[in-house]
Design goal:
The chain is an alpha/beta fold and about 190 residues long. The radius of gyration is 17 Å and the shape is globular. Helices cover about 55% and strands about 15% of the residues. The protein contains 8 helices and 5 strands, in the order βαβααααββααβα. Helix 2 crosses helix 5, helix 3 runs antiparallel to helix 5 and helix 6 crosses helix 7. It has a 5-stranded parallel sheet, with helices on both faces. The protein has a single domain, classed as P-loop containing nucleotide triphosphate hydrolases (Rossmann fold, 3-Layer(aba) Sandwich).
């Protein structure tokens, strides 16, 4: 089975590309949504969040205060690294199980949507990288509208992901709202499946 990472910064349109691939019949592992589910379901992760970021990280009824944790880590590289050290091992283990299930089901290729491929220690599991790209102003507008965040908050998140530049061998998918995405995906998928 060939594994393709869908990378790109916040607001680039990775989720749109993932949705199209699912419609095309491919399996897609979304690292962000799986990380949220794993965090919500793991008392060990919640306990670690409280130890690292204080009792306000998790409410008394066991709900993670994502807004509080986000304020703790965005703009603070060391705090973000500590959060990643808590969450990334669980995501990697979950991804390996998912890949095993895909392989057992006879999938020819499967996709992994992630904004932080190298920083998440998943690069060694990936055969190809497709970088979803959009101009920064488009990304900022998308995230501000989608998440009701200020421009400054979006820019801080973009900056936090800035070290995650596509590797030289990555294929680029332009998702600027002008160029059609589907023909680009068909061409790339044909290249991988040959």
């Amino acid at each position: 089975m060939k594994t393709i990472a869908l990378t790109g910064g916040i607001g680039s349109g990775k989720s749109v590309v993932s949705a199209i691939l699912r419609i095309m019949g491919y399996r897609v592992y979304d690292c962000d949504s799986r990380a949220r589910a794993l965090m919500d379901g793991s008392q060990e992760i919640k306990d670690s969040l409280v130890r690292e970021f204080g009792r306000m990280a998790v409410s008394t009824d066991g709900v993670i205060d994502r807004g509080y944790v986000a304020k703790c880590v965005f703009g603070d590289d060391e705090a973000l690294m500590r959060l990643n050290e808590i969450v990334h091992p669980a995501v990697r283990a979950d991804l390996l199980q998912w890949m095993g299930a895909c392989s057992a089901a006879g999938c020819g290729c499967a996709f992994v949507e992630t904004a932080i491929l190298r920083n998440s220690n998943l690069r060694d599991l990936i055969d190809y990288e497709w970088n979803v790209n959009a101009p920064e102003e488009v990304r900022i507008s998308r995230v501000m509208a989608r998440n009701s965040l200020t421009r400054e908050a979006v820019e801080a998140r973009i900056k936090a992901q800035a070290s995650e530049e596509a590797c030289n061998g990555a294929s680029v998918i332009v998702n600027d709202g002008i160029e059609a995405v589907l023909p680009q995906l068909v061409r790339l998928v044909d290249g991988v499946e040959k």
